[in-house]
Amino acid sequence: MRNFKCGVVSVSFRQHSPREIIQAASNAGLDCIEWGSDVHAPCNNDDAISEIVALQKEFGISCSSYGTYFYLGRDDVAELHDYAAAAKRLGTDTLRLWCGTKGSAEYSEDEKQEFFDLCKRAAQIAQEENVRLCMECHAHSYTDEPDAALELMHSVNSPHFLMYWQANQNESLEYNLGYAKLIAPYTVNLHVFNITGTVKNPLAEAKDTWLQYIDIFGGDRALLLEFMPDNKIESLEAEAKALIDIAN
């Protein structure tokens, strides 16, 4: 059963204000926004978060998730308490994190076990805070390959430590479908775009591909647009129309 919310990540428009982003999202018929911690919603900036909370109420847009730039393996896990507090103020229990600072193949066995132990500590903090930490599905991180991501999920084994999923623009459709099927039971939200290599294309041109992807993911998830084909906020309306068409 499809039960997707449609939204956008604020980091697609770092040069725009929260009001400009939320107004564009509302005009485009989107449900939610993933606010980034790097520019729009730093976890220690009470004024910025308060402004976003007020804007969400004004425009009837919810916060799907908090897109942090917290790196497991680089940053102090104790800081997750502050990030969790910011997420809750924004109205979400879902935080996106970066899972390590290098690809899974670069970890020695000892480094891997140390990293897995760190992830378990992070999951314990998430349980204490009653939030979900979701690992970015991205190159140059531990979750760069499906088998590595699945091993990590099995090792941590916590409903508070889960995944995002996005297509790898440098891999084949078969590879991406395989990764999606493997990690779907652990996936909270999806980042949606149509990129081949370094070329950004309109999402509507990838409708058939994305229909295959989302058929794998059931349940209550958010489909979040990431990047416009021309990097312009004015293109959000067309991209949102394509996303809503795919979701429904």
- Assembly state here? single chain
Please give the largest β-sheet.
8 strands, parallel, barrel
CATH architecture: Alpha-Beta Barrel
Strand order of the largest sheet: 1-2-3-4-5-6-7-10
Q: What is the CATH superfamily classification?
A: Divalent-metal-dependent TIM barrel enzymes
The share of residues in extended strands comes to 15-25%
Q: Measure the end-to-end span.
A: 11 Å
Helix content: 40-55%
Query: Which runs of at least 5 residues are low in confidence (pLDDT < 50)?
Result: none
Count of DSSP-assigned helices: 8
Look at the helices and sheets and give the structural class.
Answer: alpha/beta
Mean pLDDT over all positions: 96
Q: How many domains make up the coordinates?
A: 1
At the first level of CATH, what is the class? Alpha Beta
Q: Give a count of the beta strands, DSSP E runs of length 2 or more.
A: 10
- Rg over CA atoms, rounded to whole Å, is 17 Å
The CATH topology label is TIM Barrel
H and E string: EHEHEHEHEHEHEEEHEH
Shape: globular
Tell me about this structure.
The chain has 248 residues and is α/β, with parallel strands linked by helices. It has one domain: TIM Barrel. The protein has 8 helices and 10 strands. An 8-stranded parallel β-barrel has the order 1-2-3-4-5-6-7-10, surrounded by 4 helices. It is globular and about 50 Å long. The model has no long low-confidence stretch (mean pLDDT 96).
Question: Which terms would index this structure?
Answer:
eight-stranded parallel barrel, two-stranded antiparallel ribbon, TIM Barrel, alpha/beta, single chain, 10 strands, 248 residues
